[in-house]
């Protein structure tokens, strides 16, 4: 079996993309699009999502082609790593998404609890949820909010820092210490 990609000069095509030559991206897609799609489908297990990711990968490759450094690896590896990283990020994001039911009461409908994640009743342990609420209530408000932003809202430490105005190192320390306190409280 011969390596079809050995005849295609990936580095030259990336250099052409960096110079803004649209035909280069088209040639790259024609040559590697199917293989990129195959790799991404194996990661995300969803063809529609994979097609979107390959599209985004091509845009990223086009926009960042000038950042390719041949001293750090092959152009083909760089191209596939762009797609792979986007696919892995999509999985991480998808796994953090929470689907909300349309019958969820508004915040004004529940005074006792400030945050709720609604899941199927048969899978939810109400006692654990009540204990978690009680443990969260024991944290200082700014620390509790940081934990909730991280684990309910899915924000990164940097996003929490920007949202709260607290320094990044402080946010990281608050979350780390708060998680330790929650672990102790839940034990």
How would you describe this protein?
- The structure is a single chain.
- The chain has helices at 10-18, 22-44, 47-64, 75-96, 126-137, 141-151, 157-164, 168-186.
- It is mainly alpha-helical.
- Residues 1-5 and 98-126 have low confidence and may be disordered.
- α2 (22-44) packs antiparallel against α3 (47-64).
Task: Summarize, please.
With 187 residues, the protein is mainly α.
Mind sketching the topology for me?
Layout: H1 10-18, H2 22-44, H3 47-64, H4 75-96, H5 126-137, H6 141-151, H7 157-164, H8 168-186
- Percent of residues in helices: 55-70%
Instruction: Catalogue the unreliable spans.
Output: 1-5, 98-126
Q: Which radius of gyration do the C-alpha atoms yield?
A: 23 Å
Overall spatial form: elongated
The major sheet is characterized as: none
Beta-strand share of residues:
under 5%
Mean pLDDT: 79
User: Order of SSEs, N→C?
Assistant: HHHHHHHH
Q: Alpha-carbon distance between the termini?
A: 58 Å
Number of strands: 0
Q: By helix and strand content, what is the structural category?
A: mainly alpha
Helix tally equals: 8
């Amino acid at each position: 079996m011969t390596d079809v990609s050995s005849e295609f000069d990936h580095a030259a095509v990336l250099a052409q993309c960096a110079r803004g030559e649209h035909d280069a991206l088209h040639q790259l897609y024609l040559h590697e699009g199917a293989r990129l799609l195959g790799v991404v489908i194996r990661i995300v297990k969803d063809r529609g999502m994979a097609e979107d990711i390959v599209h985004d990968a091509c845009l990223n490759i086009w926009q960042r082609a000038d950042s390719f450094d041949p001293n750090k690896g092959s152009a083909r590896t760089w191209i596939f790593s762009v797609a792979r990283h986007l696919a892995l990020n999509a999985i991480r994001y998808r796994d953090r998404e929470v689907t909300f039911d349309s019958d969820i009461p508004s915040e004004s409908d529940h005074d006792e609890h400030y945050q709720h994640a609604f899941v199927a009743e048969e899978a939810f342990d109400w006692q654990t949820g009540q204990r978690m609420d009680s443990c969260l209530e024991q944290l200082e408000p700014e620390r509790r909010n940081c934990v909730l932003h991280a684990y309910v809202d899915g924000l990164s430490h940097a996003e929490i820092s920007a949202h709260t105005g607290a320094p990044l190192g402080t946010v990281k320390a608050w979350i780390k210490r708060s998680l330790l306190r929650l672990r102790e409280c839940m034990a």
